[in-house]
Amino acid sequence: MTPPARDGAAARSSARSDIGLDDVVEHFTLDDLERELLRNKSGSTRLGFAAMLKFLGWKGRFPRGLFELPDDAIEHLARQVKVAAAQIGAYDFTGRQIKNHRREIRAHTGFRICTVRNAEQLAAWLASHIAQDERRVEHVRASLLAHCLDELIEPPTAERASRIVDSAIRQADAMLVATVVGRLNPGHIARIETLLNASVVETDVDSDPAERRVEPEDELSAVKASPGNVSLATVLAEIDKLEAVRHVGLPPGLFDGIAANVVAAWRARAAVESPSHLARHDQPVRLVLLAALLHLREREITDTLVELLNSTVHKINAHADRKVTEELVKEYKRVRNKNAMLHRIAEVSLAHPQDQVEDVIYPVAGGVQGLTDLVNEHKARSKAYERDKRKVFRFSYTNHYRSGLIKLLRVLEFRSNNKDHQPVLDGLKLILRFADSKTTFYPPGVAVVLDGVIKADWREFAVSVDPRGGERIVRLVYECGVLEALRDRLRCKEIWVAGADKWRNPDEDLPQDFEEKREENYAELKLPLAASEFTSALREEMRRELSALNTALPDLDWLEIADRKSGAIKLTALDALPEPRNLRALKQACVARWGTVPLIEMLKEAALRTGALRALTGVGTRASLPDAVLIERLLLIAYAYVAVA
Question: Is 383 part of any domain?
Answer without folding.
Answer: no
